[in-house]
Specification:
The chain is α/β, with parallel strands linked by helices. Helices cover about 30% and strands about 10% of the residues. It contains 5 helices and 4 strands; from the N terminus they run ααβαβαβαβ. Strands 2-1-3-4 form a 4-stranded parallel β-sheet, with helices on one face. β1, α3 and β2 form a beta-alpha-beta unit.
């Protein structure tokens, strides 16, 4: 992604939506998972195919994310047991995941957040 102009409307929105998110650093992801967090990969299939997948991550297409993780939705996944589930959303670079996490919080999933830098920030090993 190109460097974002900090005065663009999307940059302002992104900054607003990140307010209140306790974003997870890549180095802290394993500890989050060990504490019970669910990592949710919202990247498109093309990116997962080209760049790889994160073992153990729950793959949920961005266009159905809210329906799958809302515990009151008839279309929820089994993991969506209540509003206290800790979700760490992951996209390519940590932009779309911030917007998605903020939306989940508006649905009442108060512990939803995202991964700083996204999949591309994870150490390769």
């Amino acid at each position: 992604m190109a460097v974002m102009d900090e005065t663009s409307a999307i940059a302002v929105l992104l900054d607003q939506e990140r307010t209140g998110l306790d974003r997870v650093l890549p180095a802290d992801l394993d500890a989050e998972v060990a504490a019970g967090a669910v990592v949710v990969d919202i990247r498109p299939v093309e990116n997962r195919s080209a760049e790889g997948e994160l073992p153990g991550a729950l793959v949920v297409d961005r266009n159905v994310l809210e329906w799958r993780l809302d515990p009151t939705s008839p279309d929820r996944l089994p993991v969506a047991v209540d509003a206290d589930v800790r979700y760490v959303l992951m996209c390519n670079e940590g932009y779309a995941s911030s917007l998605a996490a903020a939306t989940l919080r508006r649905l009442g999933l108060r512990r939803a957040t995202d991964l700083v830098g996204g999949y591309r920030a994870l150490p390769r090993g």
